[in-house]
Amino acid sequence: MSGGERRGCELGAAIVLTLCSVLAAYSSAAAQSPLGYAQDSILVRFKELAPLQERAQAHALAGARVHRTFRVVRGLQAVKIPPGMRVREALELYRRHPAVLYAEPNWIFRTQTTPSDPGLGDLWGLNNTGQNGGVPGADIRALAAWDLTTGSRNVVVVVIDTGIDYTHPDLAANMFRNELDCSGNRTDDDGNGHADDCFGIDTVNGDSDPMDDNGHGTHVAGTIGAIGNNNVGVVGVNWAVRLMACKFLSSGGTGDLVGALGCLDYVTLMKSRGVNIVATSNSWSGGGFSQAMFDAIEAHLEQGILFVAAAANNASDNDTTAVYPAGYDLPNVISVAATTRTDGLAGFSDYGRRTVHLGARGRDRQYLSHEPVRDRQRDLDGDASRHRRGGPARRPESGPRLAGDQELDPRGG
């Protein structure tokens, strides 16, 4: 293997390992919220050859209007239904129309809760020396990995979340910049349909300012790519990386399927324009199965983009009760469980022999809080509930075996 190929494998392994660690870290014992969906909108996908007049007829029969059209999935639209119409009624009207491929609810998603604490000495997930009762070596082998690579500014990871504080001193230099649209002149200088999308976009407020007003996305971004060796805060698994922000979760930590698809749409757009996006980070869950989300993630598969998602925190078997978006059965989806400093499955973590692929350090994991604007610290560790352990890990066949990932014991205990 040439030096360039070896370095490519190292960087690829680092990115996957980073995101797995992040999504395990940002799980807690918070209960999974009940299924919920927006009451004023739905998703409709038309058949590829459906004429425009038939599509317009379907909207007219439901009394609905088009709210958004997506490029990531051909024929997919978000529509606003009339006041007083029930979602079930709207779905039935569209599903009966011969031009419609499928219609589904606009599911609601929520963030995973975020544990954190300052100090590299407490970051057992990076370097576990047995501190605080841990098992030495139960970590992601970060120190050894940094001897091989500390990341690359040619690699872009998209944090699909509550946004990122792109002014944070430990993140600013690692933020992706869409240079042609960083002038702040309210003009779409690069012609991509978004004015001033320097760091990404915000589908909650319908603008191009993905500033974090919750803190969750900034936590996630800091774990992925807080600048290394700069004497500020802590260090991300990647010292050098480019972080793109797509905000679809509100200040309260909630968002909907339309907003999430808007982010996946933007990722597709930017990838097609030559941005080297290798993966998206998705530390949120909720709702039921969405064919539109499945189709969008599958479109990312065709573009070579990984979709890394938290397995969730219900202490349940995802093989029996699916959790989304981690539960989509696609080759580019990596579902991540949380493990402890003693190398066991975290008590709150979901598991699944077929549906959960990797375990990464999550229980009692500690990180600096990269809160927007302020460098405050906070500790949001959750309680754990006991349950049996899940199934063996599955790694991408074409990728390297990652140092520090873990096969989950299927025998229970």
Question: Mind explaining what this structure looks like?
Answer:
With 413 residues, the protein is an alpha/beta fold. It folds into 2 domains: 3-35 and 111-361, 3-Layer(aba) Sandwich (Rossmann fold), CATH 3.40.50; 37-107, Peptidase S8 propeptide/proteinase inhibitor I9 (Alpha-Beta Plaits). Helices cover 22% and strands 20% of the residues. The chain contains 7 helices and 13 strands. It has a 7-stranded parallel beta sheet, with helices on both faces. Strands 1, 2, 3, 4, 8 and 10 form a 6-stranded antiparallel beta sheet that branches. It is globular, with a radius of gyration of 21 Å.
Broad structural category: alpha/beta
What sequence of helices (H) and strands (E) makes up the elements?
Answer: HEHEEHEHEEHEEHEEHEEE
Q: Output the radius of gyration.
A: 21 Å
- CATH class of the largest domain reads Alpha Beta
- Count of discrete domains: 2
- Which of globular, elongated, flat, extended, rod-shaped describes the shape? globular
Kindly report the name of the CATH homologous superfamily of the largest domain: Peptidase S8/S53 domain
Task: Please outline the major beta sheet.
Answer: 7 strands, parallel
Q: What's the CATH architecture of the largest domain?
A: 3-Layer(aba) Sandwich
Overall residue-averaged pLDDT value: 77
Would you identify the regions where 5 or more consecutive residues have pLDDT less than 50? 3-9, 28-33, 114-122, 363-413
State which percent range the strand residues make up. 15-25%
